[in-house]
Design a protein that fits this description.
- The chain is 46% helix and 8% strand.
- It is mainly alpha-helical and 123 residues long.
- A hairpin with a 4-residue loop joins β1 and β2.
- The longest helix is centred in the middle third of the chain and has 19 residues.
- The relative contact order is 0.09.
């Protein structure tokens, strides 16, 4: 946002945060969870490249567990990381089986209007 021409003061005022809190947030140390998520993200990107973006979160989770990172990686965590970074599996839809459909036979009803001596068709 600073690159877009806004000053830090304007951004801090809009977010209702003090300047001190903003700068403290900038210099914060990453937590172990953040570091693990980054490792998982790198592994996801690597697996995506080798498998041509065709793996969903279920298989991705199994492959990450096989890699043996040494900490818990469950399906929900993989879904969250993939969603945050816009990673989706490319999949194709199965073609629907088609069969020869016989055209509907219309029954034509003929009614003779005796009063007017006309032939009326319904159908």
């Amino acid at each position: 946002m600073i690159k877009d021409g806004y000053t830090v003061s304007e951004l801090v005022k809009a977010a209702k945060v003090s300047r001190q809190a903003y700068y403290k947030w900038l210099k914060r140390e990453l937590t172990t969870k953040d570091i693990q998520d980054q490792e998982i993200l790198n592994l996801i990107k690597e697996i995506e490249k080798t498998n041509k973006q065709s793996i969903g979160y279920g298989k991705m989770t199994r492959l990450i567990k096989r890699a043996g990172l040494g900490y818990l990686v469950n399906k929900k965590r993989v879904i969250r990381i993939m969603k945050e970074h816009g990673i989706k599996a490319d999949y194709r839809l199965k073609e629907k089986a088609t069969r020869n459909v016989k055209p509907i036979k219309l029954k034509i009803y003929l009614i003779v209007n005796l009063n007017r001596k006309q032939l009326i068709r319904f159908g």
